[in-house]
Amino acid sequence: MFRNIYIFGLGMMGGSLAHAIKRGKNCKKVYAYDTCRQSLLFAKKNLLIDDYDDKQFTLLKKSDLIIICAPVKKYDEIFKVIDKNISENAIVSDIGSIKTNITTSLDNCSVSLRRSFIGSHPLTGSEKYGIRNYQTNLYNNQYVLISPFNKNNGLLKEITNFWKKIGCNCITIKPRQHDSLLALTSHLPHITSFVLVKNILSKCPQGEIDSYTGGGFRDFARLANSDSEMWEGIISLNKSNIINSIDEFTNEIKNFKKIVKNGKSTEIKKYIEKIHKKLNS
Question: What is the pTM of this model?
Answer without folding.
Answer: 0.91
